[in-house]
Amino acid sequence: MENLLAGLEMLARWDVMVALLVGSIGGVIIGAIPGVGPAVAIAILLPATFALDPIVGLTMLLGIYGSSMYGGAIPAVLINTPGTAVNALTSYDGYPMTQAGKAHRAVSLAYSASFWGGIFGILCLILLSPVLALVAPMFGSREIFLAALLGIILVILAHRGQIFAAGLLAMFGIFLQTIGLDAVTYTQRFTFGYSFLSSGINLIVVVLGLFALSQAFFLLTAPDESPEAKPVKGRMSAGFRELLKHKRVATVASSFGVLLGMIPGTGEFTAQFMSYTYAQKTSKTPDAFGKGSPEGLIASEAANNAVPAAAMIPLLALGIPGEALTAMMLSVFYVHNVIPGPALFQNNIDLVYGLYFALIALNVIVMVFLLFSTNLLTKIIRVPTRFLGVTILLLSFVGVYSLRNSLTDCMISAGFGVFGLILKRLNLPIVPIILGMVLGGIMEVKLRSALPRLKTPFDLIDRPISFILFVLILLVLALHVRTLVCEWRGRPAAEDHDMHDTQMR
Amino acid sequence: MSRVKTLQSLFKRYRRPGDIVFAWIALIVSILLLVQVTEQTAWKSGGPLFAQPRFWPAVSLGGMAFFAAFHLLGSVLSERLHGRWQEVWLWITSLEYALWFIAYAVAVPYAGYLPATVIAALLLALRTGYRRPSTLLAAVATALVIVLLFKTFLKVSLPSGAVYEVLPDGLRQIMLTNF
After folding, report:
1. Is A406 within 8 Å of A64 (Cβ atoms)?
2. Would you state the torsion angle of the CA atoms of residues B161, B165, B166, B169, taken in this order, to the nearest 10 degrees?
3. B90 CA to chain A: closest CA distance, Å?
4. How far is C-alpha A107 from the geometric centre of its chain's CA atoms?
């Protein structure tokens, strides 16, 4: 109870409230503009938040993360272009509803389902906290090493149809973090004699290049477009009543979001597809899916909005980010010397509760904002894409240069920008590089610190949690091999498609 | 025969033009880096394998080469896509915008953040084909908002321009601090 109050107190500051307001509303606007997305916004704002208090910086970034999917539903429903990549399935049923003259119904239903998913995710996070506080201290160096290894394997295997590319890029990420002076032996690694490489390749510089600058280059090299969204008439709160008729679908979809959000590397896409498939299979009208089914829309939006809260679980409890946005947030913790992981629940539990309350508050703020401003957002959607590219390029400079006023950083970032553009054009994933960098660093440090206690390699798995993690790794690999064998025996899986659309992330 | 076919289909992937060029470059770079591993990393004699400074670079580069080889195999076995070299040309043309970005970064410490941002916004808007005065005005307004938000209000660490030094005393101080 004391911790809860301390968490509330942490939030009851004017600067935190302003950060939350700016983050939440900014996130909705950013989410609503196709071609920007939360990753671009968080990457740009990241260095600016380093000068702020940890709770202020984190609530702002959390605001953007948690609210962007609300905004992303608007263009997905109205113009068949998802605002963020994770709103892709929303357009399957949302746009046909708009074509049938039911845009108001679709948008309000999307908001209600998002709210349901968001709040469900936070409640699960709060309920799970005592368990996390109990389990997290059982994670020592070897357990965190194995959890990070599991994360890398899942990130690679989650990219069905692109596993080799995802593996290549994850390994590239691991390699990138090894460049520079080795912190233990003080020997140079792949610096080729260049002094600027001795301090290593900064994660933020890579993130800004791969997410922000690449998006600017992508928009600037593509033909100019100006999406046309018509205003929506009617009360936006109407969707809640309809949502209550589909409580089961919304709850199951949110549960998928929570479960998959907790597992590193899987996230919103898998959660959405699983809940959409579930909703279709259990629906009385499965044929309506893809043609304007309210259940399909609810399944998609409730699942993706339940993920942000769940994604905080491995980040806060183990210090292991499950996807790119939480990987970026991890650097905010590090800058302020707050190390997420088992110790966080013992030493900074007030910060953890503060973040929970911030998540609840952001969902309420966003919902209230959307009830009154949907039509304003339909105007913002119309910003021409090349103009957006110019704006992102100018903003990226703030992010890269403010880090340490280095022109070299700008050049490295521009190089990663071009690399990111190539990956986006080829529809290859960017996230494995970032997770490879972060998880690779964690694996190296944790394996080294576990070594003095390891007499034989089997000592790595001689504790209950490490053994469970090891079995999970074997299980994941075995399941993948089984799928491959099935495909080889002439039962090919569904053709790969745009499921991993990387162009908006 | 059918086995061969299904094995082939196992490596077939959903691709876009230019994928095979990327696959070749990725494999060549991975192998070139991998052969440098003994030269670019050290081996501490007597230390355990997992604690060697060479261990993680070797594992990651070995993994890169392994996955790159299979990625290339997948590309070779998949249907040929047209428009490969147009795509590669687009990648090359994107370097122009990378140069714009670097030129803007070079200009800021000399011209000052506010003038450099306004000029960059205007020139980029013109370069990307906008001619209407209202759009160009919007580009300048966007640049102003960015400067006011990050430099004036958030006090983000950005350099002051050398050009500000020639301004009269009072104005110079304001420009150095806020713009």
Report:
1. no
2. 130
3. 7
4. 23
- Look over chain A and give the mean of its residue pLDDT values, rounded to a whole number: 84
3-state secondary structure of B12: coil
Helix B84-111 to helix A214-221 angle (10° resolution) is 120
Provide Rg for chain A, Cα atoms. 22
**Contact: B57, A167; criterion CB under 8 Å:** no
Produce one character per residue of A40-53: b if its CB has 16 or more CB atoms within 10 Å, e if not.
bbbbbbbbbbbebe
Distance CA A96, CA B58 (A): 51
Tokens of A211: 């997410």
**The predicted structure's pLDDT at residue B3:** 44
Mean pLDDT of A75-88: 76
Find where tokens 């460049």 sit: A179
Query: d(Cα A249, Cα A257) in Å, to the nearest integer?
Result: 12
The arithmetic mean of pLDDT across residues A96-105, rounded, is 84
Q: What is the mean pLDDT of residues A135-140?
A: 82
Mutate to test the interface with A, among B45, B67, B126 (most CBs of A within 10 A): B67
One-letter amino acid at B46 equals G
CA dihedral angle for residue A81, residue A86, residue A92, residue A95, rounded to 10 degrees: -40
For strands A180-181 and A188-189, give the pairing.
antiparallel
Q: Is the dihedral of CA A388, A322, A363, A87 positive or negative?
A: positive
Put simply, the chain A residues between 101 and 130 with a CB less than 8 A from any chain B CB are none
* pLDDT tens per residue, range A7-63: 778 778 888 888 889 888 888 888 888 777 788 888 888 877 877 888 888 888 888
**How far is the C-alpha of A72 from the C-alpha of A78, rounded, in Å?**
11
Task: Answer yes or no: do B94 and A161 touch at CB < 8 A.
Answer: no
Mean pLDDT over B33-45 rounds to 91
The answer, for B78 touching chain A at a CB cutoff of 8 Å, is no
State mean pLDDT over A313-328.
83
User: Based on the number of CB atoms within 10 Å of its own CB, is B178 exposed (0-12), middle (13-18) or buried (19 or more)?
Assistant: middle
- Quote the CA–CA distance of A147 and A466 in Å, as a whole number: 8
Phi, psi for residue A470 in degrees, rounded to 5: -65, -45
The answer to whether A124 and A258 have CB atoms below 8 angstroms apart is yes
For testing the chain A interface, which of B66, B124, B179 should be mutated: the one with the most A CBs within 10 Å?
A: B124
Beta carbons of B77 and B8 less than 8 angstroms apart? yes
Instruction: Please give the span between the terminal C-alpha atoms of chain A, in angstroms, as a whole number.
Output: 39
Distance from C-alpha of A279 to C-alpha of A489, rounded to nearest angstrom? 30
**Alpha carbon distance A135, A48 (integer Å):** 34
- Does B32 contact chain A (CB < 8 Å)? no
Question: How far apart are the C-alpha atoms of A347 and A350, rounded to whole Å?
Answer: 8
Residue range A342-374, pLDDT digits in tens? 778 777 778 888 888 888 888 888 888 888 887
Give me the pLDDT at residue B107, please: 94
Instruction: Supply the pLDDT for residue A491.
Output: 56
Query: If you average pLDDT over residues A288-301, what whole number do you get?
Result: 86
What would the mean pLDDT of A434-459 be, rounded to a whole number? Answer: 86
A63: which 2 tokens? 């605001």
Lowest mean pLDDT among A122-131, A207-216, A232-241, B25-34: A232-241
- Using an 8 Å Cβ cutoff, are A402 and A476 in contact? no
The number of residues in chain B equals: 179
Q: How far apart are CA B28 and CA A60, in angstroms?
A: 42
Q: How confident is the model at residue B105 (pLDDT cuts 50, 70, 90)?
A: very high
Chain A: residue nearest B11 by CA?
A161
pLDDT of B31 higher than 70: yes
| B53 in contact with A, Cβ within 8 Å | yes
Q: What is the ipTM of this complex?
A: 0.91
